[in-house]
Amino acid sequence: MMSIDAIQRASKKIRPIVKETPILTSKQLSEKCNNDIFVKAEHLQTTGSFKIRGAMNKVSDVAAKGETAIIAASSGNHGQAVAFAAKTFGLQATIVVPEDAAIPKINAIQAYGANIIKHGYTSEERINYAKTLEGTFIPPYDDPLIMEGQGTAGLEILDQVKDIDIVLVPVGGGGLLSGVLLAIKQTNPAIKVIACEPAIADDTYQSYKQEKRVHIGQTETIADGLRTSIPGEMTFPIVQQYVDDVVLVTEEEIKAAMMFMYERMKQVVEPSGAVTIAACLGKKLQVTGKRIVPIVSGGNVDLFSLHHYLP
């Protein structure tokens, strides 16, 4: 059973490599949201997203067991994180990416020394193929060590911000959400943790409302890191037990949040990372005067496609 103790151990293990990301504040953001907003800036993390937390925790364990090769299926942040972790521990990584993967994303993964294999177009195709390759498969979220690693972001939030009322977490497969839920709810159950999700990729929202994992098929949200079709098998029971609510944001609200972060706070945030800011700006929480910590989960934007995200 995962616990706060395991997350604390993970924090000590990954500390030499993984940054304690800063808390950013903006008077304009707080005023627009009618709440005191403290942004957890995971887009400033090593490799540009929170994913390095879980990857380092998992890959360090694999390396300690004497394994020499690891496999992952990802076109984005998970692939970069696994490639970086493999390089750190002297392992060979192979990342399976979709046939139509963007060149900048492939270049970013290869920059850390990983091999690239193109296969299929859906995440299911990539994962199924990756599992046939020789090496230890590193899941994107459904793994205790991955989830515990992601939960270290929650521990940092508790240390960095006092008297928190609400923490907002982006949700796709649920690795970050489940880890943060365990870290926060097992430390201070009074703090509300609310998941934020694209309205057109609402598998966690539907699953939460129906009290079972719901499959919604492929989605086309601009928040490509949140394009899961069903919540994780391991993550969802934790979400179901602890999460206080799941709120939805539109594609236009995501774009507006990205623009606000860039124009007003000079921060480049990817669509998946902007959903929590979108929830604040869109008044999805229906509260005022609260101390709210939105996690901005990543900042890996393909600059060649950035104009597509403008409102």
TrEMBL record:
Tagged with keyword Magnesium: yes
Tryptophan synthase beta chain-like PALP domain segment(s): 15-298
Highest taxon listed in the record's lineage: Bacteria
Cell division in keyword set: no
Catalyzed reactions per annotation: L-threonine = 2-oxobutanoate + NH4(+)
Keyword terms, alphabetized: Lyase, Magnesium, Pyridoxal phosphate
PROSITE patterns: DEHYDRATASE_SER_THR
Cofactor(s) needed: Mg(2+); Ca(2+); pyridoxal 5'-phosphate; Mn(2+)
Record-linked CDD domains: Thr-dehyd
Top-level EC class: lyase
EC numbers on record: 4.3.1.19
Assigned protein family: Belongs to the serine/threonine dehydratase family.
Role played: Catalyzes the anaerobic formation of alpha-ketobutyrate and ammonia from threonine in a two-step reaction. The first step involved a dehydration of threonine and a production of enamine intermediates (aminocrotonate), which tautomerizes to its imine form (iminobutyrate). Both intermediates are unstable and short-lived. The second step is the nonenzymatic hydrolysis of the enamine/imine intermediates to form 2-ketobutyrate and free ammonia. In the low water environment of the cell, the second step is accelerated by RidA.
Name of the protein this chain belongs to: threonine ammonia-lyase
Organism: Candidatus Pseudogracilibacillus intestinigallinarum
Organism phylogeny: Bacteria, Bacillati, Bacillota, Bacilli, Bacillales
